[in-house]
Amino acid sequence: MTITSIPLANLDGTPASLEPLAGKAILLVNVASKCGLTPQYEGLEQLQKTYGSRGFSVLGVPCNQFLGQEPGTPEEIATFCSATYGVTFPLTEKIDVNGEDRHPLFDVLCAVTDAQGDAGDVQWNFEKFLIHPDGVTVERFRPAVVPEDAGLVAAIEAVLPA
Fold first, then answer.
1. Continuous H helices in 21-70
2. pLDDT 10s digits, 135-148
3. What is the spatial distance between Cα 82 and Cα 21, in angstroms, rounded to a whole number?
4. pLDDT tens-digit profile of 82-92?
5. What does pTM read for this prediction?
6. Is 146 helix (H, G, I), strand (E, B) or coil?
């Protein structure tokens, strides 16, 4: 089973999956609108613009589990992302990334180790998971790793399919 086959929903609640992104490199990021790290949206959008035509997509996954920093409705989240940061990459429904109600996608992602060899719960908003085009291989980058980080950019460039 690949990550792309796990059911999700779009931000508006309509059923979806990562299947339309199969064969692309995906940078999946749990996002929040009222976090000190929220300005990372700008760098994420730049990655989308730079690599989108080369078989890459950022995927934002709103989460309200960290101090309630994503309290908005789907419409408020969409408007904030578009108006404030010009976000063009897709966003999923708001989901839980940790705990008893953790989405099945994050059951898989939380088993992935970071550069220090640590797996487990998502630490905070803007944790990043680079899903290779094979839909199986994943690399994990903790929240403090900004989208412009040379290591993250090199990892993306190394797996671009086109």
1. 40-51
2. 888 999 999 999 99
3. 21
4. 999 999 999 99
5. 0.96
6. coil
